[in-house]
Design brief:
This protein is 27% helix and 30% strand. The strands form 3 sheets. It has a 5-stranded mixed sheet. It has a two-stranded antiparallel ribbon with strand order 1-2. The radius of gyration is 14 Å and the shape is globular.
């Protein structure tokens, strides 16, 4: 059962690229942009991460913190962050527990081939830990996603 607008986000979010455990309470009093993306260093995911990076100062000034999530390893995330100078943490959801809880992991199809993968989805969580907005995969424009969030 995927989380939806109005639901409380889970307390334990996951482990970052540096091995640090992240909890929702770490962001108490701030809005959290929790964005799920398919894979480090792919064209769409890089465009999305860089758009958020380029708008990071503006997002912070509006009270947002940002955390990205994919099923990639901590090592992959570290390289992705260094290569693109990302100023925010990435959760290594290698067991897909967080993705399954948020409903962002499931069956996908490309060129008629079915496989399991991450649905590009962004959750905006308010200061009280409640999900107040969800950007679904078809709504996200990777190259301007940072601006999409700022328009809220």
């Amino acid at each position: 059962m995927a989380l939806k607008v109005g639901d409380k986000a889970p307390e334990l979010l996951g482990t970052t690229q540096s091995g640090q455990e992240i909890k929702l309470s770490d962001y108490k009093g701030k809005k959290l942009v929790l964005y799920f993306y398919p894979k480090d260093n792919t064209s769409g995911c890089t465009a999305e991460a860089c758009s958020i990076r380029d708008n990071y100062t503006a997002l912070k000034s509006k009270g947002y913190e940002v955390v990205g999530v994919s099923a990639d390893s901590q090592q992959s995330h570290t390289k992705f962050i260094e290569k693109h100078s990302l100023p925010f943490d990435l959760i290594a959801d290698t067991d897909k527990k967080l993705s399954e809880l948020f409903g962002t992991w499931g069956e996908k199809s490309m060129y008629g081939r079915k496989y399991m993968g991450m649905f590009r989805t962004t959750f905006i969580i308010n200061e009280h830990g409640i999900i107040e907005k969800i950007f679904l995969p078809k709504e996200i424009k990777t190259s301007i996603h940072g601006e999409q969030i700022l328009k809220l």
